[in-house]
Design goal:
Blueprint lengths: L1 H23 L12 H4 L9 H7 L1 H4 L6 H4 L12 H25 L9 H41 L6
Helix pairs in contact: 1-6, 6-7
Amino acid sequence: MRFILINLFAWLIFYSVFSIGCQKLPNFYFSVKSPLDGIFKERNFENKGKFWRQEFYVHRWKGYLPEGSNLFNINSQTEKPEKGLDLIKFQIMESKRSELLHWSLIIISPYFFIWNPVWIGWAMIIFSVVTNGSFIIIQRFDRIRLCSIQNRMENMIKKGAVFR
């Protein structure tokens, strides 16, 4: 029981600190010019999101997972635009911010070996990969779709469509 409470407390601290840290990062880190951009680029195997849909059925279960920004009342530094291309760009940036958070939580999970027996340390790594990996899949799946919408909207604007 003691390990359960210690690990629960540790996860709450890690999630809180890393969530706040990712929210405080300037938007530049989530732009195309950022050195982090390579993490967020679509990979060939993703095949415009079809991989996540066909292999993981993400479209069936993603709506059942909680949205962390709603749970912890965390808001971005940037005010959310009302609609149009600016809203799509905002959502793309926020999906990158969320993905970075979840990758960070997977990367720090080996710290659980410090105060846990080996088997619990491995359980914490598996827990971290499964839970955070699920959110990474959602962010990647959604971002691919959002980037497609962004490209179509930008092309329409170039052709003289009026919306923004």
